[in-house]
Structures are given as C-alpha cells and as structure tokens.
Amino acid sequence: MVTPAARRLAVGWLQDGFGVSQRRSCRVLDAVRSTIQYRSRQADDASLRTELVALAAQRRRFGYRRLTVLLRRGGLRVNHKRVYRLYRQEGLAVRRRKRRKLASGARIVLAPPTRPNERWSMDFMGDSLASGRTFRILNIVDDYSRAVVATEVDTSLPGLRIVRVLDAHRRGRYPR
Length: 176
Known about the structure:
The protein is of the alpha+beta class. Helices cover 42% and strands 14% of the residues. It has a three-stranded antiparallel sheet, covered by helices on one side. Helix 1 (4-18) crosses helix 2 (22-29) and helix 5 (64-73) crosses helix 6 (80-89).
C-alpha cells in the first residue's frame, strides 16, 4: 500500500470485516490515524472544468495560460497551476497545425543513355590524411559504360577548376 487512499481502503476493510476499531486497524497496518481521518477541503472543480472546456472549445489556439487570463476576466479567482492541472486532466492541448503538403510535381524519369558520353554523373567524396588535413575527390562517371571519365583530387576544388575539368573532358583533352 503506497497511497493514502489505498491505506484508507485497507483500514476500512479491516474495520468492516473484523469489527475492530479504527485505532487497532491503523496499528495493525502501521498507518497514521491522521492520514486515515483526513478529509479534503478542496473546492469542487466541476464548474471551473466546464468553463475551461467551453473556453478551450471556443478558442482552440489558446493554451492554458491564455485561458487562465480569460477565466480571470470572467470573474473567477483561479491560480494558473490549478488551471494547468485541470487542463491536463481534461486532455486539452493546443492543436498542432498540420504542415501544408508541397505540391509534388510529376517526377521525370530520365531515359537510359544509349551510347557512351551521352550523360555523365558527378560526385564528391572527402577524407582526411593521417596528419588531419582533409582532401576532396571529384569523380565523373559515364552513365552508359560506367567508366570513370575523370578523377580530380586536391585539398580544395573550387568551382572554376571543376568547370575546367568538365570542359577539357568534353572536348577530349585531358588536363594535368
């Protein structure tokens, strides 16, 4: 038995089942009598709950903080922590906005190449040396024959250098 409510039930069961006093039941179960005799003085939250649910239905984009302000404007004296507790117990939450789906255009499937040098694919790779210095590799592959057209390796591959490599291979000259 962990909760006070469970202890109260057990003490009540002993009292009813065996006809013993509350004192003796508490001693047997090692329960504190003040815990068993405790009666909550908390006000009933039913009216606050209904008001909160009605406001949340009206204002779907308002969270518990803004609903607390509206309840206070309505004349209720409420604590924001109490409103939060009731908000969660009622299963209320601000609705997440769904992201608009982007218009998906029809994907164009490229026709397979029919001869060498009709279409090339290009890819960059990177690695680092034992000293920690990084380098990049540009690979150009012919899609028809799967042959490597060019491989360029350097610590830096600027755009102009890539254009120069592509132009040279397109014309048939291979630069060093």
